[in-house]
Specification:
It comes from Streptomyces dysideae. GO terms for molecular function: DNA-binding transcription factor activity; transcription cis-regulatory region binding. Keywords: DNA-binding, Transcription, Transcription regulation. It holds the Pfam family TetR_C_31. InterPro entries: Homeodomain-like_sf (IPR009057), HTH-type_TetR-like_transc_reg (IPR050109), HTH_TetR (IPR001647), Tet_transcr_reg_TetR-rel_C_sf (IPR036271), TetR_C_31 (IPR041583). This protein has about 210 residues and is mostly helical. The chain folds into 2 domains: about 1-50, Arc Repressor Mutant, subunit A; about 60-195, Tetracycline Repressor, domain 2 (Orthogonal Bundle). It contains 9 helices and no strands. It has helices spanning about 5-25, 30-40, 40-50, 50-75, 80-100, 100-115, 115-145, 155-175, 175-195. Helix 3 crosses helix 4 (about 50-75). It is elongated, with a radius of gyration of 19 Å.
């Protein structure tokens, strides 16, 4: 087999890992299995990524980048704040409907990373990046619409992501089209209400 530069082999291995683990789960994603998926030597995986954890981190980054790119492309150029938030949420939700396996894989990788010290920093960096991108989109939407934010953009972003993660888990475990549509609309309304200072915040007692 002709030599392929690491720069070209890297995206091929990431795709092979995504394809394999989407079908069979993270537990099936050994470096040997991923190498077999692409038809290369196992040493190629280690040469390209160093470790299996390095490959897993690259997979998380690739999946997230693809999802965020699809959402950013949907951002309306001239719309009110509520409409913009709704468009962003709907665009992200469409990725769940179109590629549920990728969202399941991201969830699996996150749980795996929590129990893998070598991936703890990668997971923290991953979520920090997602929060930063979401906060930027929220800020831009507010600025375009002339909508002052009642809460910091990062707070709104974290609220958005927390609620969306819950909707995704419900979709993966117990899909219900009608209930999901209602919950998505309620979720969008809650995000907008928080951003506008119209959502009542209840103090949580210390235990």
């Amino acid at each position: 087999m002709a030599h392929v530069p690491a720069a070209e082999r890297r995206p091929q291995l990431i795709k092979a890992a995504i394809d394999l683990m989407t079908r069979e789960g993270v537990s099936a994603g050994s470096t040997r299995a991923i190498a077999t998926e692409l038809g290369v030597a196992q040493a190629t995986v280690h040469y390209t990524f160093g470790t299996k954890e390095g490959l897993y981190r690259a997979v998380m980054e690739q999946l997230t980048a693809e999802l965020l790119a699809q959402v950013e492309q949907a951002v309306p150029e001239d719309a009110g704040f509520e409409e913009t938030v709704g468009t962003l949420a709907s665009a992200l939700w469409s990725t769940v409907r179109e590629k549920p396996g990728h969202h399941l894989l991201l969830s699996e990788l996150s749980m795996f990373a929590l129990r893998t010290p070598a991936l703890n920093e990668a997971l923290e960096s991953h979520y920090r990046g997602v929060v930063e991108v979401t906060a930027r989109l929220v800020t831009q939407a507010a600025e375009r619409a002339g909508q002052p934010l009642a809460e910091p953009a990062e707070t709104v972003a974290r609220f958005f992501l927390s609620g969306f993660d819950g909707l995704v888990m419900q979709r993966l475990t117990h899909p219900d089209e009608e209930a999901e549509a209602t919950c998505l609309q309620a979720f969008i309304a809650s995000v907008v209400a928080l951003a506008r200072g119209q959502l009542s915040l209840v103090a949580v007692p210390a235990f």
